[in-house]
Each structure stands twice: as structure tokens, then as C-alpha cells.
Amino acid sequence: MTQTLRLPTVFRQIRLVPMVLAPHLTWAYAKDVKFGADAQALMLQGIDLLADAVAITMGPKGRTVITEQSWGSSKVTKDGVTVAKSIDLKDKYKNIGGKLVQDVANNTNEEAGDGTTTATVLVCSMAKEGFEKISKGATPVEITRGVMLVVDAVLQSKPVTTPEETAQVATISANGDKEIGNIISDAMKKVGRKAVITVKDGETLNDELEIIEGYISPYFIINISKGQKCEFQDAYVLLSEKKISSVQSIVPALEIAEDHRKPLVIIAEDVDREALSTLVLNRLKVGLQVVAVKAPGFGDYRKNQLKDMAIATGGAVFGEEGLTLTLEDVQPHDLGKGGEVIVTKDGAMLLKGKGDKAQIEKCIQEIIEQLDVTTNGVAVLKVGRTSDVEVNEKKDRVTDALNATRAAVEEGVVLGGGCALLRCIPALDSLTPANEDQKIGIEIVKRTLKIPAMTIAKNAGVEGSLIVEKIMQSSSEVGYDAMVGDFVNMVEKGIIDPTKVVKTALLDAAGMASLLATAEVVVTEIPKEEKDPGVGAMGGMGGGWIT
């Protein structure tokens, strides 16, 4: 299977001229043109500079980068793509090299949500080696074919199934911050792996997880011996798309429940003010069997959830568009019925619904078909703060960790710390190149696959080449834990990376390196010289108008 290499958007602004035409283009140009080694050397300087700035952030002991902002205070970050985007070089040819690497980082970030630093160091290494071999006579096109042979090698991945594995992936992507890893794992456990999870500034010094669902007031809990939950048997269920604020609107439903001696569960957008205080007061003072639950989610998602509940319980949704049904006109047949209802501060379960079985089965089939977009709620990760600079840096890490965790759930995981790429190297020996130049391409990638592990080790203050050599001599799951400075079983320690992130970084880096290898001419705009406007005549001195 042949991988498709993505063409970076920045190439839309660059004209590439075939090598065979170069000797004949000797006249004066309207634009600045550089050929062969001259152009490649300048581009490589830009690639090198940007890659060095990004590489310093790699691994658990990577350092932060401070970037000047055009507004506000400086930004402190360990996010590779943020560092890459912040760099502009004055020299046009160097800047083209830097922009190409930025494009690799952007592509990887958009596709996988993480892995931008890995992609950056990979493309830098491939470009360096490629230019060096081309300068010694190797054919660029054949080198590219050799690189593509390597990209077609498939990484074996392990599916992510448990909350512990989810936390491990998130922790690694958050640069070893276990608190971030655990809070993301907790969010996915509570609202589903494909759920809506957002990151925003918190109001306290601590990181917090907010789940938008569950009982609205803890005062609905009467039987403390059962823990913080409210349990009803054979209950009526009132469903409303709208917020309930007036007590008069729910009195008819309460009267129906009282007449039939059944508990009442109210599930609505929200219940507040007079309605909530009245329900709580009656629950505490007279033992009214009632609980109010905030419907999960927002917008269309919440509407669909309420419709599903209505089908499951055999009730109606009040406030639904197209229906003239109002809460004041409620009848017993408008209320859903649940054999058992359990409500906690995190959510609610409706069991043994009394809805029409045919309708329920139809709904189940529709949900199965749309499983990829069905979630159990909405989670908001609130990042604790002591200053704006700190919270912005931490939000970058939380966002990276969240993206990496989603990628891991999607395609599984491989060994972290650069070990997955190292373990690919022996498998490349079985590849059969068509010629020596293709073999050179394969060898370039073999050496490049060592770079991420070496960079992580270097940032931890140890010799990267020695670390890589020892990893290659160890068993398949052994790698280097840069945080503690020891060789460990990476799977047991939870040092793992999302397969999608590693594959995307390698694919994007190989694609860019291949394009750079075949670029022989670079054309740039010549800066326009600003003419001296001169000094106009002063008013009253006969100078007239300046046009």
C-alpha cells in the first residue's frame, strides 16, 4: 500500500524550476533566484534554526520557550507547533525553509492533534541527510522513492481500552503531569471517549473537571445511608426542553404523581428560582418523592437525548418545537414511566422504561448507526491559575494531552519515548530497493528514526547515541524513562504514544523531506526599494500642491 504524501500549502507560493533548465537561465531576473546547493544551504539553515528551537521542548525534561507577543505579555510554552508558528526569519531563503517546517507541524497538528515536535525533528534530519547525499551525486527522485518505501511500513499498535491506559497516554502528552492525565481520563470515563470535552480557564488554583449533568440540588438526597444518590421505584418522568422557573408550571405534574402515589423525576434544561426552592422545601419538609435533573449536553444533542428518554419511558417532551403541549396541561399519559431511577451528582439512570417496545428497538438501531457521534454528556476541563502566563502554558499541555488521548482511542498506542520508531528499524532490513540511490533513501530514514529518542535523552542531559544503542540491544518493550533516568518496561510504566500521532509525524516528515530533496531552484520576491519621498514645498512659499 502506498501512502499519499500531503503537499504543504506553503508550496503554492514557491516556484520550482526543473534542474535541466537551470544552466540556461542566465539573464537578469525580476525576482531573486537561487539554484542547487546555494538555495538548499540557505533553506537548511532556516530548517535547522526552527527545528532546534522546537526540539528543546521534547520529552519530560524538555525546556519551555518564551515567545514575544504582538500584544500582551510574552507567552511561555512547551507546545511544538506554537513555537514553530512564532518564528519568522529575515532572510527570505532561510524563512522559506522555516515555513516549510512550520507547515509540517501544522499538518501533523491538524491531523493527529499532537506529535508536532517529533515531525519537526524528523523532517530536519531527513532534509540534512538528503541534501548531503544529493551533493555527493545521489539522484533526488530515487532517494525519495527509497523514503516512500519506508513510510509504507506499518506500525503495530495496541488498542486503548481501560481508564488507566487513557490516563497514561494523557500523562505522557502533558509532559509527565499525572494530574492532567488523571483528569482527562476521568472526563472520558464519565462522558464517553467521543464526548464533547472542552478546556477553559478555571477560577481557582486547582485543576477541576465539570460534568454538565446530574441532580440539580444535593438537598434531593434524603437517604444518606445509600450514599450521595437518589433512588426511586416505579416513578413518573417529566421531560422538558425548556428551563422551569415557575412553580405553577409543575404543580399539575406533582398533583398527578401524588394522586397515583408515585415519585416524580423532572428532567429539564434547568430548574431554578421559585420552582427549585419549592421542590427542595417540599422534599425536606413533607418528604415529597421528587428529584430535578439537568438534561445532559447542549442544543440539538440535548434535544435528541430528551427524545430518546421519551421513547424509552413512553412519555412526551414538553417545549418541543411543533407541539402545543404545555406543562400546565399535562395528563398522566404525557408522563414517562421508569421501573427504577437512580440519580447521583454526576448523572442519572432510567431503568426498565415502560415505552413502546417497537419504538425503543427502532431508536436503538438509529443510535447504533450513529454511535461515533453519540456521547453521554459534556465535560469542561478548568485549568487552575496563579497567573495568565502559567495558565496559558498549562492549557497548551492540557489541549495536547486531550488530542493525543483521542488519537490513542482512535487507533491504539505504541511504545513511547521514541521507541516505536526505533523498533521499526530492524524491519526495514527486509525492504528491497531497486537501486543504490533508493537504498540511500532507506538508510536516511533508518538514521532519522533514532532522532526522537536521542533528542529526548539529550534534553534529559545524557548522551543520546548511547541511550539508543542500549535500547536497541534490549528486549522489545524496554525503553528509556527520561524522567527517572533509567531503562524500564515502557508498557508497564505507561510510557506510550498514540499510533496515529507517530504515524502522522513520520508521514508528514517524509513527505516534506521528499519535496525538499527534489527542489533544485527557489524563486523569491525581490524586496521593493522604498523611494525617498523628498521634502514638499511649505505652505505660503509658492510650492503649490503635491500630487
What labels describe this entry?
hydrolase; three-stranded mixed β-sheet; nucleotide-binding; single chain; elongated; GroEL; 60 kDa heat shock protein, mitochondrial; 3 domains; seven-stranded mixed β-sheet; 18 strands; disordered C terminus; alpha/beta; 547 residues; GROEL, domain 1; ATP-dependent protein folding chaperone; GROEL, domain 2
Write the topology of this structure.
Layout: E1 32-35, H1 36-55, E2 65-67, E3 75-77, H2 80-85, H3 92-112, H4 116-135, H5 140-151, H6 163-173, H7 178-191, E4 196-201, E5 208-211, E6 214-215, E7 229-244, H8 251-259, E8 264-271, H9 273-285, E9 290-294, H10 299-313, E10 317-318, E11 336-344, E12 348-353, H11 357-369, E13 378-383, H12 388-411, E14 413-415, H13 419-424, H14 436-448, H15 451-459, H16 464-473, E15 478-481, E16 486-489, H17 490-493, E17 496-498, H18 499-517, E18 521-524
Parallel strand pairs: 4-13, 7-8, 7-10, 8-9
Antiparallel strand pairs: 1-18, 2-3, 5-13, 6-9, 7-11, 11-12, 14-17, 15-16
Helix pairs in contact: 1-3, 1-4, 3-4, 3-18, 4-14, 4-18, 5-14, 5-18, 6-7, 6-12, 15-16
Largest sheet: 7 strands, mixed
Strand content: 15-25%
User: Care to count the β-strands?
Assistant: 18
- Share of helix, binned: 40-55%
Low-confidence regions: 10-28, 154-161, 211-217, 221-226, 535-547
* Net shape: elongated
CATH architecture assignment name of the largest domain? Orthogonal Bundle
CATH fold-level label of the largest domain: GROEL, domain 1
Global structural class: alpha/beta
| CATH class designation of the largest domain | Mainly Alpha
Average of per-residue pLDDT values: 77
- Per CATH, the superfamily of the largest domain is GroEL-like equatorial domain
